[in-house]
Amino acid sequence: MAQEKDERSSAPARKAGATGEDVGKRMSGAQGPREPGYGKSVPATGPATRRGQYLIGARAIAGMPAPNVQRQSMDAVVDYLSRQENIDIVKRIKLGGSPPFAASGNGGSASEVVVARIEESKAESLRVAAQPQHIVIERDAFLSYVDVLAIPLQLAATGAILPLRSVGTEIVVRVVGEQEQPLPKASVLIYGPEIPAQAVTDETGTARLMLFGGTIDSIRAICVRPASNYWDRFIPSPRLSESGITTIRLRPLAETLANFPNERLVGWGQRLMRLDQLGGNFTGSGVKVGIIDSGCDNSHPQLRHITRGKDFTERTDGEANWSDDAISYGTHCTGVINAADNGQGVVGFAPGVEVHVFKVLPGGRMSDLLAALDECIARELDVVSISVGSDEFSELVSQKLYEARQKGVACIVAAGNSGGPVRFPAQLPTVLAVGAVGKIREFPADSSHAFTAIPPLIGSDGVFAARFSCFGPQIAVSAPGVAVVSTVPGGAYAAADGTSIAASCVSGLAALVLAHHPIFLGPLKDRSEQRVDALFGLIRASAVMHFPDLLHGGHLWSVYHGENGVRTLKELTRSYLTVTKDLSQVMNRLKAVYRSWAIPCAGKLVYTPRHRAEWLQKLPEAGVRRRAERLYQQFDMLRSLRQDARQELLVESRKHPAARLLQQIPCIGPIRAALLIALIQTPHRFRTKRQLWAYSGLALATRTSAEYRFLDGQLQRSKKMVAVRGLNPNHNHDLKNIFKGAATLASVIAGPFQDFYTALLAKGMKVSMARLTLARKIAAITLIVWKKGVGFDAEHLKQQAA
Predict the structure, then answer these.
(1) What does 163-212 look like in DSSP terms, one character per residue?
(2) Residue 359, H or E segment
(3) Are 394 and 373 in contact (CB under 8 A)?
(4) What is the pLDDT of residue 369?
């Protein structure tokens, strides 16, 4: 098959009706003269300023565009950016149409994103200025696939290993097989007293490593990982030769797996999931599965039937080849799903499925994942296995995953291999996050796989939670992901660990369910969101508990005890609110001084520094003037502290993905969004909007007497109407002030909230009750947007939505 290339469109002509000047005025506030170097970056004098790569795209808005906001095309945005210094347009990515929840008539801006290199400070200012135009500017973060080496060793602190000592010890290791044959391309990792040393064996099986900061005796462990066909080996406290060559012998896979690969192997994962009990007729024929990973070597004898793929990586040689898998992960996962059943080697979970390979590693970014997801939607795939992730949140990728689910594409995502919280995008509610489990006695005891087991979490049947697997309430299910044997480049096989392997197992199971379950052959045959919901529900329902940790297994949502991730933001919020209250008190005291002498002081003019002398002269007594001067000094000090606290609060809030989501809501700006995140911490602590209303002091308090009475000797409930006694007094006062302030502002600013408020007044509702209803509405919409991770929708303002 001819290799497909990513579409890289050249700079298009400017569209009529949307000029760069128009966008410039909206993004910068005023249009200055053209800056030098149109379309090119101009070297800055002095020290070089760090530039990052950013994604620029339109925020999807449900229902209708925001009032008084004209959608801008990407042509106009590119035209404006091209006029700025130190901004390079890297590429433009055409996406296939608008998301299902986007407004119509938006000039097609939701169907294209721009990748540009921008200075970090300038990108931050552009991001803030572009928010009213519903333009997203976010970092084009690198995608990662962290290799698994779950060795319980503590590395030295950074201060202890940097800088490296100039004197080191050379260690020579030779890696051989069962017949003393050299094993090239084997990775050798030595854990010394400081930073680990690693190398790869040459054609003679020899690797030379330089150990700094210690001697041979200080080495704590050595791990050797072969390229293929052998088990890896982990040796604690090894005895290495200081002057000669240390030979390490590895065991072939066939030593544990009898007659492999000459005879067909049904992996332990397939046996655990009972797929070995299915007949040969249970294939995935008719189902299309996408694999977003590092490519696939389709020259492998069991993968030659795979002919569809696309390369989204940037290659320096200008070539794009999805069948070139330099890091082997993609080939391994492809074999797990779709290795051909030819009587030898391994057999995939779902032979017969139509596989589409999308290469985004190595070197891929969020923009590549976005383009790959768009390609999955365009090709109308049924299931997509996503092996990559990131520690950074992407609103544009989240929108695309939501679109995929709406269009019936089931995205199954690896939770991550860091052993910590679930990574993006597995943390999103629109996907199925998968963790990894292993099983004892399915690998040699001296391999690194043995160290992936957590002893307290080993079930009676030997199934255990993998040490490296990310865990948390986002995990839907866990699947085999330790010592899974599958295909690797070069026509060989290898045993590997990782949540991406577990996600591949679940993806293969999903393909079988779609191909054979009656509900997907009848009422849910067509792709739809209901089909994805039903598929994910069946997969979760089929999970079996093997060990007591429910968070690793995906059997339980955690009880909320607060999140350490927002602790810093909480403390900064307390500082900001405290300083703000102190400043308000000083301002009130200052005005009280003037009012006590019958001096009118309405407005803010009394606080301005240039008019202070004039105001102080109005006070007749020297002691009163001195008191006012002291209050002015407090005012200046607290105002400066408040600015510092505000800046720190904004910087910290940008680390949280929810900040961008909440700022889409009218009248919820950066400060209110930061305060909401700190005070609420997570929307999942509130099951319904009424619980949030009660916590925010917006719930109705009802009281009644004689609720029960005896009638004919029977205790019966009184039919007397319950009396409303105002709002509940036990609440978070800061949270109430946020929603009340937002409602007050929204009632006087043109927009959907003002229209809603005006309609309430037109029905005869009192002003106070209308503002309360608007505040409750804003709180309900905040919960919807935050919980579902979607954009603000004007449809939320309908009466039944709050």
Answers:
(1) SPPS-EEEEEEEEE-TTS-B-TT-EEEEE-SSS-EEEE--TTSEEEEEEE
(2) strand 354-359
(3) no
(4) 95
Residue 703 contacts by C-beta under 8 Å, 6 or more apart in sequence?
A: 722, 723, 725
3-state secondary structure of 293: strand
Q: Are strands 135-139 and 51-58 parallel, antiparallel or unpaired?
A: antiparallel
Amino acid present at 358: F
Angle between helices 20-28 and 120-130 (to 10 degrees): 100
**How many residues appear in the chain?**
802
> How many beta carbons lie within 10 A of that of residue 779, not counting itself?
25
Give the predicted TM-score (pTM) of the model.
Answer: 0.66
Could you tell me the sign of the dihedral formed by the alpha carbons of 277, 281, 287, 293, in that order?
positive
Alpha helices in 597-706 (DSSP H): 612-617, 622-653, 657-662, 670-680, 689-695
Sheet holding 168-176, edge to edge: 206-212, 168-176, 245-249
Q: Is the dihedral of CA 646, 651, 656, 661 positive or negative?
A: positive
CA 176, chain centre distance (Å):
42
Residue 741 CA, distance from chain mean position: 31
Q: Assign 437 to helix, strand or coil.
A: strand
**Mean pLDDT to the nearest integer, 683-708:** 81
- Angle between helix 20-28 and helix 74-82 axes, rounded to 10 deg: 80
What does the alpha-carbon distance between residue 247 and residue 262 come to, in Å, rounded to a whole number? 29
Q: Please determine, for residue 10, whether its predicted confidence score (pLDDT) is greater than 90.
A: no
Q: What are the tens digits of pLDDT across the range 615-642? A: 999 998 999 999 999 999 999 999 999 9
Q: How many angstroms separate the CA atoms of 517 and 382, rounded?
A: 14
Strand 484-488 to strand 492-496: parallel, antiparallel, or no bridges (unpaired)? antiparallel
